[in-house]
Design a protein that fits this description.
Layout: H1 5-14, H2 27-34, E1 52-54, H3 58-61, E2 70-75, E3 83-85, E4 88-90, H4 95-109, E5 113-123, H5 128-138, E6 140-148, E7 163-170, E8 184-187, E9 203-205, E10 208-213, E11 218-219, H6 241-251, E12 257-260, H7 267-274, E13 278-282, H8 286-301, E14 308-309, E15 312-314, H9 319-332
Parallel strand pairs: 1-13, 2-5, 2-12, 6-11, 8-15, 12-13
Antiparallel strand pairs: 3-4, 5-7, 6-7, 8-10, 9-10, 14-15
Length: about 325
């Protein structure tokens, strides 16, 4: 039997790389995880939605959600772009229509928020102004975070787009912000010493010099999930676990409820679980819901968050130092 060399080459190209860790679902897993999803057709109490994934259109479920139960609201809505999400398309709108669409659900989500809650809303450079405009109608604007997406295609007639914004709002003047929980461990290039030649505001970590710095609104230590990362899924706009960890640690406490109305493949819920928070979320696509459920099961076994180790966030490309830090902790025990 002859083997077509062209077909063989194509088949070989389709095989996943040896280190590809992208999370997939078998038919059996889909059937299993589908049974865990819930749907709402009447108003429910808090216990009915906490630590659950609601598989419905957000606009069809808002009226049934409990009031005053959310401590942290994280929103990663479709940006104003034409994009495919599994079998569904989101189509680009006129800017004013996009603002009307944002308002159609953001105004209604206010009822689920506690008075001292925080709200984070993601957007790209085109949708960022709309998010600010609509969000500031209902909440107090605290800051705009800009984070670097190191992925992205180059452009011949424009600047390469490699940043996204996250608007930080609060529901009142009283809110949670745990600044010491979100320090960034940076390498020290020119370390200072005091008069006794002791390190000044830095520490030695297995031969390398580091300083734990206060968090800013510029995040350049985030890696977008890719095929060799164990958190990676097929979702086209998946947010990194490290990004969610920063927000959840800063703006919630253990036992608080974190809510995501566009849950996607479940990053918000997974990180909330890993960090000892409760979660709830809405996602219209069943396949993404099942991916989220699978990740939640995995989070019961492995609570690591890439880039977060020893109670601090680390810069990119410091994996070796993170492993050494973890090894030292194990030896001390």
């Amino acid at each position: 039997m002859k083997i077509n060399p062209i077909c063989s080459k194509v088949e070989m190209m389709k095989k996943p790389a040896k280190l590809n860790r992208t999370i997939k679902l078998s038919k059996e897993e889909i059937e299993n995880y589908r049974s865990r999803l819930i749907r709402l057709n009447e108003p429910v109490k808090i216990n009915a939605v906490v630590n659950k994934i609601i598989n419905q259109d957000l606009l069809n479920v808002i009226d049934f959600l409990p009031e005053d139960f959310v401590d942290l609201l994280f929103i990663d809505p479709p940006y104003n772009l034409t994009k495919k999400f599994n079998e569904r398309f989101f189509k680009k709108m006129d800017l004013r229509d996009y603002e009307i669409w944002l308002d159609s659900w953001l105004s209604k989500l206010r009822k689920i928020l506690k008075r001292n809650s925080s709200i984070y809303i993601c957007g790209d450079w085109k949708s960022s102004s709309s998010i600010f405009k609509v969000g500031s109608e209902y909440f107090k604007v605290r800051n705009r975070i800009t984070w670097e997406r190191e992925k992205g295609r180059g452009a011949k007639s424009n600047w390469k787009n490699c940043t996204e914004d996250i608007w930080f709002f609060t529901n009142s003047e009283t809110y949670t912000f745990n600044v010491n929980e979100v320090k960034l461990r940076r390498r020290v290039i020119a370390p200072y010493k005091d008069e006794l030649r002791n390190p000044k505001d830095w520490q030695m970590e297995d031969g390398a010099k580091f300083r734990d710095t206060s968090p800013s609104n510029i995040w350049n230590d985030i890696s977008v999930p890719f095929w060799s990362m164990p958190e990676n899924t097929e979702h086209p706009t998946q947010k990194p676990e490290k990004l969610l960890a920063k927000i959840i640690l800063a703006s919630s406490n253990k036992g608080d409820v974190v809510f995501d109305p566009f849950l996607g493949s479940g990053t918000t819920a997974v990180v909330a679980k890993k960090l000892g928070r409760k979660f709830a979320g809405v996602e219209i696509d069943e396949h993404y819901c099942c991916l989220a459920e699978k990740r939640l099961v995995q989070a019961e076994i492995d609570k690591r968050i890439q880039g977060y180790e020893d109670g601090v966030f680390w810069e990119r490309n410091t994996l070796i130092e993170q492993v050494k830090s973890q090894s030292s902790k194990v030896k001390q025990k």
